[in-house]
Design a protein that fits this description.
heterodimer, A: mainly alpha, 9 helices, about 0% strand, globular, B: mainly beta, Immunoglobulin-like, 4-stranded mixed beta sheet, 11 strands, about 10% helix, about 45% strand
């Protein structure tokens, strides 16, 4: 049970901590105070708690598809604000919008991932003999996830400015693709779009069960057996984000 | 082009009604059409219950190349997450409640699923056999 809880909490924490570390590093590069992150985290935790407490009610909405609809909205929200972040990254006059977008992204990511952590831990609070190992495992998982975030943060801020921007933008592009890929899965799961057949299977190469598969999933939404719609939306979101990133990078270089 | 192909994939057969005009009269002059063709009604539903962190049934067979609705009923007092890498599905089923998950259309094969919160006991398989 302990090992399992390490894995579950790690996966949830890793996704949020990756976004957070990149955005904190971008703040550092842009010489913006990183204090926005505290408010965003608090708002995210409050939102996650509210979501977790009301999950049963939310799930039963819309013929049992409420959970998917809320999560789809969260993914779309994060995606839109990742785009705004990428777009406003090197525009000094738009610093306020840049900070606001980072707050929304981090808060929404914490609502999404944090609610699952709360639901998971809460489920064990009624099983005393399992609660302690789960809490210990959870703490280890959260520790690893946050450490990876800290590692990424220091990795980015120690690169040269140009490389740091490129690296951060590359991660945001992959995150954006991953968001749309997960959103598509939820659309299919809830039958909100016509059902699709799987178009290829790369589980022989990288299984989603494996550690590499899990890391690739957190980083870029890796999917061994995607559907056509998923691949199309993934590519479209990558192309759009890359376009924005390219424009931003050119502005940055011009400004010197 | 790609998008078009995606959208036009599911072909739901639309009922056809013929009306003839002969001698300036309609034949038939009255006809009955269904209220609404509900594609959801034709989707087979399979129930899976979660009790004591186990799935009942733990193995089920679903039709090949067909969209299927899974109704997952959690009778436990703790939440469970229905998850399957092979089916690309993941959904939390809160304590003492139900959840709906659509899967497929699937090729023949075996698709394992598990409860992410209690993976040691909550294990199951979906079988898809050739017609």
């Amino acid at each position: 049970m302990l090992i399992n809880s390490v894995g579950i909490i790690l996966r949830e924490v890793l996704e949020a901590s990756l976004i957070m570390s990149v955005l904190l590093a971008l703040s550092h590069l842009n010489q913006i105070s990183r204090s926005w992150c505290i408010g965003a985290t608090i708002m995210g935790l409050i939102g996650a708690t509210l979501y977790a407490v009301n999950l049963a009610t939310i799930s039963s909405l819309y013929d049992g598809l409420g959970q998917e609809i809320v999560n789809i909205c969260l993914y779309v929200l994060i995606f839109i604000f990742v785009l705004i972040i990428v777009k406003t990254l090197s525009q000094k006059p738009k610093a306020k919008l840049f900070v606001f977008s980072m707050v929304v992204c981090v808060a929404a990511a914490i609502v999404r991932e944090g609610s699952e952590v709360i639901i998971y831990l809460n489920g064990f609070s009624s099983i005393p003999e399992l609660f302690t190992p789960v809490l210990i495992g959870g703490a280890i998982g959260a520790g690893i996830g946050l450490s990876v975030g800290v590692f990424f943060y220091y990795l980015i801020i120690n690169l040269s400015a140009v490389n740091a921007y490129c690296f951060s933008l590359a991660i945001l592009i992959l995150v954006a693709g991953g968001l749309m890929s997960q959103m598509t899965q939820l659309l299919l799961q809830a039958d909100l779009v016509p059902s699709q057949s799987v178009i290829w299977d790369t589980s022989w190469l990288v299984s989603e069960h494996s550690l590499v598969g899990q890391i690739l999933f957190a980083l870029m939404g890796y999917e061994a057996t995607p559907t056509m719609l998923q691949v199309v939306l993934y590519v479209v979101s990558i192309v759009i984000t890359t376009g924005f990133a390219y424009g931003s990078f050119k502005t940055y270089k011009k400004a010197g | 082009m790609l998008l078009f192909a995606v959208i036009s994939l599911p072909v739901l057969s639309t009922p056809v009604f013929e009306i003839e005009i002969r001698n300036h009269l309609f034949f038939p002059s009255e006809l009955t059409v269904p209220v609404k063709s509900l594609p959801a009604l034709s989707t087979p539903v399979f129930e899976i219950e979660i009790r004591n962190h186990l799935f009942f049934p733990s193995e089920l067979t679903v039709p090949v190349n067909t969209k299927v609705k899974l109704l997952i009923i959690n009778r436990d007092s703790s939440a469970e997450e229905f998850e399957s890498y092979e089916l690309n599905r993941e959904k939390i089923i809160p304590a003492n409640s139900k959840g709906v998950v659509f899967i497929g259309p699937l090729k023949p094969g075996v698709y394992p699923f598990f409860g992410e919160f209690f993976p040691k006991t909550a294990q199951g398989k979906i079988h898809v056999n050739e017609q």
